[in-house]
Design goal:
Elements lengths: L4 E10 L4 E8 L5 E8 L3 H10 L7 E8 L4 E9 L4 E5 L2 E3 L6 H13 L2 E13 L8 E10 L13 E6 L1 H9 L6 H11 L4
Parallel strand pairs: 4-9
Antiparallel strand pairs: 1-2, 2-3, 4-5, 4-7, 5-6, 5-10, 8-9
Pfam families: NUDIX
Cofactor: Mg(2+)
GO molecular function, one term: hydrolase activity
Length: 196
């Protein structure tokens, strides 16, 4: 079976954090098709990646953080505009220009939760969140932290409530019917089972 082949990329819309592109390609039968891609990458970076086999860069970090003093899992409740509601998530953030995953971890943990990074215990790079819609990739980071949760370091456009949850509280969140990010759902299950 022949793989589809992208032939042309056209920028449709660009914002500070996200852009839309039209990918023209031929399907496995050779028929011309279009696919809309949401990306955090610039047109130049995508063009280099798709047509010149350039290096793919990780877009963000997602943090599975255990609070050292309490052995609780660090979560956030964040208002997300596409949902027009709050959702339980793991702390996360974009890798800024000039940073890599490692240099982003402590900054994002502090910004979103007020907590201080102690140690990264595992980092799995280039994991994809919704490959049918976006090329966004993340580094999933397991780490330990300390301190008290705080909203002092949030950016103006962030509406985030950082929380520490016990296994019992994690179970209640899963049973509550609250909106959950899928990564958070899976990590809460791991946490309850003692796998973290």
């Amino acid at each position: 079976m022949e793989s589809p082949k992208m032939e042309k990329l056209t920028a449709l819309a660009k914002t500070r954090f996200l852009s839309l592109y039209d990918a023209e390609y031929k399907n496995r039968k050779g028929e011309p098709k279009h696919w809309i891609i949401a990306s955090r990458k610039s047109y130049e970076d995508l063009e280099n990646l798709y047509f010149n086999h350039g290096e793919e860069k990780t877009d963000a970090v997602v943090l599975v953080a255990i609070h050292q003093e309490t052995h609780q899992l660090v979560l956030i409740r964040q208002f997300r505009m596409p949902l027009n509601d709050f959702i339980y998530e793991l702390p996360a953030g974009l890798i800024d220009e000039g940073e890599d995953a490692n240099s982003t971890i402590g900054r994002e943990l502090r910004e979103e939760t007020g907590l201080e990074l102690i140690e990264v215990t595992h980092l799995q790079d280039k994991l994809y969140l919704s490959a049918g819609m976006t090329d966004e990739s993340v580094a999933l980071v397991y780490c330990t932290c300390k301190g008290a949760v705080s909203t002092e370091y949030l950016e103006a456009d962030e509406t985030i409530e950082p929380i520490l949850v016990s296994k019992e509280e994690a179970q209640k969140i899963l049973e509550s019917g609250s909106k959950l990010d899928i990564k958070t759902y899976l990590v809460l299950q791991q946490f309850i089972l003692g796998m973290l």
